[in-house]
Prior knowledge:
The protein has helices at 112-119, 126-140, 154-160, 165-178, 238-241, and strands at residues 2-13, 19-27, 34-44, 47-53, 59-65, 71-82, 88-90, 142-143, 162-163, 183-190, 197-198, 202-209, 213-217, 229-235, 244-249, 254-263. The strands form 4 sheets. It has a 5-stranded antiparallel sheet with strand order 3-6-1-16-11, with no helix packed on it. The chain has 5 helices and 16 strands. 18% of the residues lie in helices and 42% in strands. The protein folds into 2 domains: 2-82 and 244-263, Immunoglobulin-like; 88-241, Roll (C8orf32 fold), CATH 3.10.620. It is of the alpha+beta class and 264 residues long.
Amino acid sequence: MRLKVTHKTEYKYDAPLHYALQRLRLTPKSCALQKVLKWQTALDGADHEVSFEDHFGNVTELISCHGESHVIRIIASGEVETEDKAGVVGPHTGFVPLWLYACETALTTPGKGIRQLVRQVADGEPIPQLHDLMAQIRDAVSYQIGTTHAATTAEEALAHGEGVCQDHSHLFITGARLLGFPARYVSGYLMMDDRVEQAASHAWAEAHVDGLGWVGFDVSNGLSPDERYVRVATGLDYADAAPISGIRMGSSEETLAVSIRVEQ
C-alpha cells in the first residue's frame, strides 16, 4: 500500500521568542515493513541546525528559533510504500545492545498492579503469550483521550483504567520486559478506516522474540501493525521517540496546533 502523510505542527507565541531549540523525529526510514519513496521537512519561522541519526537509529533534526518570530511551523510530509508482515520487523540492528531494551525507565517501571496483570498472562509460545498480554492490557485500560498526559507512567495509567496509545504502549513494554522479552516504544502513523484527518500521531510497541526479531503490537487497536502503519522512531519509551521535543527561553505564552493527514 502506498500512503501519503502530511504532519503539520504550529506554535504561536504572544511575544517574540528569546530562544528555542527543538528536536524533530519526524522522518521515517525504510525497513522490512516499508520503503520511503520521498520525504521532506519544511520549516517556517525556524532555522535548521543539524541532522543526524541518534543512538536508536532515529533520523533526528535540530531546529532553532530566536528574534522576532511569533510563529514556528513544521511540516513533515512524504510517501511511503508499506507491506503487511504481521508486524515482524526482523533481526535487531544498530548500536544499542539488545539487553538495553530489557531495562526499566521512569515511565515503564512496574508496580504491584502491572505485576499482578502479568501473572494473569497465559504461559505458552512467545507470540500467543504476547497477544494475551495485549488483550489483558486492552481489557484493563480503555482508550480515552484527555485522561492522561505525556508524563503519565504505565503503573498510573493502569490504576486509572483509561489512557491513550502512549499509555497502552508503555504498559505493553513494561509487561513484556517482566515476561523476559526486550521491548521498545514506536512512534509513527496509522491510516484510519473512517477518516483522513487526525489530531495526533500514533504509537505502539515492539517485543523481541527469538527466531523472529522485533514484532509489533498495537494494544489500542488489538492487533499487530499491518500495511496501514508507518514506523518513524523507536526508543525505550515515549521520551526517546517523541515526534517533537525541546526547550524555549522567555515568558511568551505558547499555543500549539497539530494536524495530520494519512491517506492512500
